[in-house]
Please model this.
Amino acid sequence: MKAKVSVEGIEEVKRALKEMGEEKRKQVEQEVYASALDIQTEAKGNLKDMQTWDLGNLANSILVDKLEGGLAADIGPTAPYGVYVEHGTKPHFPPPDALEGWAKRHGFKSTWPICLAIAKRGTPAKPYLVPAWEKVVNKFWKRIKEIVLK
Model:
């Protein structure tokens, strides 16, 4: 799962930055990347604060990729279950093998009690990525405006 935020008018932004010069474009690229890293750090902290940390696989899988020549970024986990932690699940019967390691580390002799509980109730949403974006976004836009208007 990756959080994708698209900016309408990206071509206009690119043209405007080209007119402002290479120095401002580089400053904007640096700010985009720095903010993406801030989101990554916040998301990892959110997982830890919510005590969803087992081996750290989900947190360690949160990557930042530059896009649009550095004017955009993808931030999100490569762990396939990241979306289920963020949004939760409806009741379903999960594959017992997928929970085996977790169950053993947490003192369960079998995955069946966990599977049955998930089949009955699903799993609750534990948002970590969206709150990270929400914490960073206002500072990001403020710094972009400062760069563009100076």
Observations:
- The longest strand covers residues 62-67.
- The CA atoms of residues 12 and 18 lie 10 Å apart.
